[in-house]
TrEMBL record, chain A:
GO molecular function, one term: ABC-type transporter activity
Membrane topology: Multi-pass membrane protein
PANTHER family in the cross-refs: MEMBRANE COMPONENT OF ABC TRANSPORTER YHHJ-RELATED (PTHR30294), MULTIDRUG ABC TRANSPORTER PERMEASE YBHS-RELATED (PTHR30294:SF29)
Transmembrane regions listed in the UniProt entry: 21-42, 178-202, 223-246, 258-279, 291-310, 350-368
Taxonomic source organism: Mangrovibacterium marinum
Family as reported in the entry's similarity comment: Belongs to the ABC-2 integral membrane protein family.
Keywords: Cell membrane, Membrane, Transmembrane, Transmembrane helix, Transport
This protein's GO CC annotations: plasma membrane
Major localization listed first in the record, in broad terms: membrane
Keyword Transmembrane helix: yes
UniProt name for this protein: ABC-2 type transport system permease protein
Annotated ranges, domain ABC transmembrane type-2: 136-371
Compartments reported by the entry: Cell membrane
From TrEMBL, chain B:
Keyword Signal among record annotations: no
Gene3D superfamilies: P-loop containing nucleotide triphosphate hydrolases
One Pfam family hit: ABC_tran
Species, as recorded: Mangrovibacterium marinum
Domain of life: Bacteria
Source organism phylogeny: Bacteria, Pseudomonadati, Bacteroidota, Bacteroidia, Marinilabiliales
Matches recorded under SUPFAM superfamilies: P-loop containing nucleoside triphosphate hydrolases (SSF52540)
Name assigned to this protein: ABC-2 type transport system ATP-binding protein
Length: 372, 264
């Protein structure tokens, strides 16, 4: 235990003198929280519509007014020519073209039915289907209005219908930042912890100081734990710093217990730092460590469910995610912050992260060689 | 200076001849890297309290053999004991009893002198009291007391090397391995360095040192000269000089190394 104390003392003295590292530790959370959380949003806003209104009737204008009134849409431009609309779509100047045919009002009156055409840029399929959904909502709302107006006699009995009353739980205002911030924070602590610990160990190899340590009676586990703890502490400090920013800037709630959150943070970091240290035991230079670590972080993050729900991934990918520590941690962060989940709700995550942590840490200790 | 040296040297040789207690024993050490044989059946013994010089051209296999004895590298075959412990099975026990100073400078440049001492003293399990005493004595000896809180990076090479040697002695090891300790150091500092080595040997420590400098070979009690991974000669400098009919060790070395096929 005393040996570890001396390693920690030494590591912190070195970190204190490493100005670049200190700057990174402070800047990274600031940039990630203030830039990425705002940028990584799925909120659909400012969709540009190109309107081709060939009917120019009361009814068609009413419909266009409905679009104009929606916060999601912007009437970007309008003309009578469909070709112009298609050109704009091609040039990416508009996101979709709304075409109202010449006999729109007439068919509505005569045949009780009329068509409009929507041409949607679907390069981003997700965005396209959202646009379609919002558009359908607007059109059906308009439909209701028309029905009420035309059949709205005083003694008229409105047709029976089911009304959906929705109530969004845990994130009542559907604030995307609340969803993203815990995820981005998980990535932040991963990057800080994994890169710093891995590069630190391999730096001793590059400098040659590791030889001097290898001729001492230091135990392998003492060395690895001594290399892990300082960066675990730094990563947790960054977690606290990031949470504070999220609280102040986006008013992110932390419904659950902070102790639980940081406890899980520490458990999670044992795993990812263990992996980082393992990588540094099998590499010789800081470049190699960076490269391999980057690869793992990339895979973990993209599979971890920060941008895309894990439930919609193929079955095999979901199975693979059982080995992905960041998948669990993003879930935990979101559940504790937004839902206020307690330890008993997170038992499965606890068991998985414990297994992952022990495995990666043992792997690093086992692979660290005092004798080459 | 000169007198000093002869005195301690005489004392040294006396201790060796009286006891002749073996502290390092190597029989048929072979180390291969793939097809390359770095050490080809080395056999030698080192006695307690002697200064054992390990000479050879670059690439002759000196550092490889030394790293094996320190437990940094594992031998391909051979029987080896260091300080009475088996190199294969008791590597960690050996590490408690040896000091090592590598070719590559290995103190932490971004730590102060005091922090380096505290770290290594801590790793070897010295008490705070022991550390304080050693630290004071060491810094006094080097005249570095005012420099205590300066970063290693700010010290000139000669001072670093001396400091690094004394730190290798911090835990009172019975055997000290020095891999080209005076490489790139000025002649005065080299002299001082050898004074430190004599002092340590006078305390009964065994010194195993590799070097390129033939004048340094003269300071050793016994030297072995390696050529192409083999030990070509092993004896006291006086006997070797007589045997090869040479005035100094330089002549001995040149005669032996001329036949070498390996260079870097």
């Amino acid at each position: 235990m005393k040996t570890i104390k001396y390693i920690l003392q030494k590591e912190f003295a070195q970190i204190r003198r490493n100005k670049t590292m200190l700057r990174m530790i402070v800047m990274l959370p600031l940039v990630q929280m203030l830039v990425l959380v705002f940028a990584a949003t799925y909120d659909l806003k400012n969709v540009d519509i190109y309107v081709v209104d060939q009917d120019l009737s009361d009814t068609s204008r009413g419909l266009i007014n409905h679009f104009e009134a929606s916060p999601f849409f912007n009437i970007h431009d309008a003309s009578f020519d469909l070709e112009d609309g298609i050109n704009q779509l091609k040039k990416e100047e508009s996101d979709f073209v709304l075409v109202i045919p010449p006999d729109f009002e007439r068919s509505l009156v005569r045949e009780d039915e009329a068509d409009v055409q929507l041409l949607i840029n679907a390069i981003d399929g997700n965005k396209a289907s959202l646009i379609y959904q919002y558009t359908s909502n607007i059109i059906s709302a308009y439909n209701k209005q028309i029905i009420m107006r035309w059949k709205g006699l005083p003694d008229f009995n409105p047709p029976m219908r089911v009304d959906a009353r929705d109530n969004y739980w845990f994130n009542p205002e559907l604030d995307y930042k609340w969803y993203m911030a815990p995820g981005i924070l998980s990535i932040l602590v991963t990057i800080i912890g994994m890169f710093l610990s891995g590069m630190n160990l391999v730096r001793e190899k590059e400098m040659g100081t590791i030889e001097q340590l290898n001729v001492t009676p230091i135990k392998k586990w003492q060395f690895i734990v001594g290399k892990l703890l300082p960066f675990l502490v730094i990563a947790l400090l960054d977690l606290a710093f990031g949470l504070l920013i999220a609280r102040l800037v986006f008013n992110l709630p932390v419904e659950g217990s902070l102790v639980l959150l940081f406890g899980f943070g520490a458990l999670y970091l044992v795993g990812v730092l263990g992996l980082g240290l393992f990588i540094s035991t099998v590499t010789e230079t800081q470049q190699q460590v960076m490269f391999v670590t980057f690869f793992f972080i990339m895979v973990f993050v993209l599979m971890g469910g920060i941008f895309t729900p894990v439930e919609s991934m193929p079955h095999w990918a979901q199975q693979l995610d059982r080995l992905n520590p960041i998948y669990y941690f993003i879930r935990i962060m979101r559940m504790v912050c937004l839902k206020g989940s307690g330890f008993s709700d997170l038992l499965e995550e606890f068991v998985s992260l414990t297994i992952i942590g022990i495995s990666f840490l043992s792997l690093a200790i086992w692979r660290y060689r005092k004798t080459s | 200076m000169k007198e000093d040296k002869t005195d301690t040297s005489a004392l040294n040789t006396a201790t060796v001849t009286e006891h002749l207690q073996t502290v390092i024993s190597v029989k048929n050490l072979v180390k291969k890297f793939g097809h390359f044989v770095a050490n080809d059946h080395l056999t030698f013994e080192v006695y307690k309290g002697e200064i054992f010089g390990f000479l050879g051209a670059n690439g002759a296999g000196k550092t490889t053999a030394m790293r094996i004895l320190c437990g940094l590298s594992s031998p391909t075959s051979g029987e080896l004991t260091v300080g009475g412990y088996d190199v294969y099975k008791q590597a960690e026990l050996i590490k408690r009893n040896i000091g090592y100073m590598s070719q590559k400078f290995s103190l932490y440049e971004d730590l102060t002198i005091a922090e380096n001492i505290r770290f290594y003293a801590g790793i070897y399990g010295l008490s705070r009291q022991q550390r304080k005493e050693k630290e004071d004595r060491m810094l006094k000896k080097l005249g570095l007391e005012p420099e205590r809180d300066k970063l290693i990076a700010s010290l000139p090479l000669g001072w670093r090397q001396k400091l690094s040697f004394l730190i290798a002695l911090l835990h009172d090891p019975q055997i000290v391995f020095l891999d080209e300790p005076t490489g790139g150091v000025d002649p005065i500092t080299r002299r001082q360095f050898w004074d430190f080595i004599y002092e340590a040997a006078a305390e009964g420590k065994t010194i195993f040192v590799t070097t390129h400098y033939m004048d340094e070979a003269e300071y050793c009690d016994r030297v072995s000269i390696m050529v192409d991974g083999r030990i070509a000669a092993l004896d006291t400098p006086d006997v070797l000089k007589k045997q090869f009919n040479s005035e100094d060790m330089n002549g001995v070395f040149l005669q032996l190394a001329r036949g070498a096929t390996r260079t870097d």
